Structure prediction request, 130 residues.
Amino acid sequence: MKNWNYKSQVEFHETDMMGIVHHAQYIKYFEESRVHWLQAMGLEKHHAPFADWYLAVLDVKAQYFKPLRFLDPFSVSVQCVVDGAKILFEYVITNKSDEICCKGSTLHIGVDGKMKTRKPPKELVEFLLD
Prediction:
């Protein structure tokens, strides 16, 4: 299981009328952190639109604990587990005080361009299991 941290800050357009991050934005943070992680590891060729293999989303979960507000810095810890054609990414979003703001996961399945189930590329699996 690999672990990686992505750092960012809350932008104004991500907040709601109460001045806190809208709940749907946390899913966006999950995706941003996952894509930046693959890029940082030199694996962006395994992510659409560069790949002939795709990660289709099967399930998304998020549990909220503390709000983030405009300009708050935050960190997203990403871990993943590979199980055949499925990849589970788990996320923990923390604020500048290291308090947990949100925990969640995204479950993906590998598919080809015709949406047929396909195992992840060997290079990616080896990296994730290393």
Remarks:
- The radius of gyration is 15 Å.
- The chain has a mean pLDDT of 89.
- The first strand starts at residue 2 and ends at 9.
